[in-house]
Amino acid sequence: MDPKLLLLVPLAFVCEYCDSGLGMGYGTILTPVLLLLGFEPLVVVPAVLMSEFVTGVTGAFAHHSLRNVRFERRSKDTKVAMVLAACSMVGTVIAVIVATQVLPKDKLKLAIGIVILAMGVIILATLRRPPKFSWGKITAVGAIASFNKGLSGGGYGPLVMGGQMLSGIGVKNAIGITSLAEGLTCLVGIIAYVIARGSLPWHLAPYLMVGALLSVPFAALTVKRMPERAFKPAVAAVIAILGFWTLAKAFGWA
């Protein structure tokens, strides 16, 4: 067994704890780390999507059970999650086509690094001065975020979380909504990858799923008393650093 595989369980645990607790960070942090460990992009991204589909749905259920969010049939939370998931489908499919048919492997790592670095910088830049929100913007945000998700395995949560909070949705509700919408978006990405590539290597997915699933109940419990404002700048800084590091690897600087 590759010793690096043993690192995936605790790594996924930490990343999913961050994601289920803040609504962001799993794929955005995990994808560049896996790339830096030497795994190929078209091995990493489908595995991240598969694990986050499972943990997204599980996390949404955990948040609903603890009343951090309400997913009743006609609730506002359910409607927002469905709108985000629906508008995300187009972006995810286009991203998978780009990743599998347009960009060569060496260029894909470069693109992933650029996307992740840009996300970190944008989050940091808008911490105190967020842009104004509208339903049109949240639809566009869902599509753009899903494109990032399908291309890099990350970048979905920061955009979607920010869009919801700007619409007046509470932070705890937004975290639960993001978990469900992201899980459904990941499912679309998985289907698109299977159609585009046929057989894919899934050997990373079980390790990621085990670690991530173990963290979900702890993260959902933490949300009730989590100082979200204190954690978000740190997460954004880590995202930007990992993006720069991934770019450095793509250019052969590190």
- Inertia-based shape: globular
Helix tally equals 10
Q: Strand count, sense and closure of the main sheet?
A: none
Helicity range = over 70%
Descriptors:
254 residues; 10 helices; globular; mainly alpha
Architecture overview:
By secondary structure, the chain is mainly α. The chain has one domain (3-251). Helices cover 80% and strands 0% of the residues. It has helices at 3-22, 26-36, 41-65, 76-102, 105-125, 135-152, 156-166, 171-197, 205-223, 228-251. α1 packs antiparallel against α2, α2 packs parallel to α10 (228-251) and α6 runs antiparallel to α7 (156-166). The radius of gyration is 17 Å and the shape is globular. The two termini are 26 Å apart.
In short:
The protein is mainly alpha-helical and 254 residues long. It contains ten helices and no strands.
Write the layout of secondary structure elements.
Layout: H1 3-22, H2 26-36, H3 41-65, H4 76-102, H5 105-125, H6 135-152, H7 156-166, H8 171-197, H9 205-223, H10 228-251
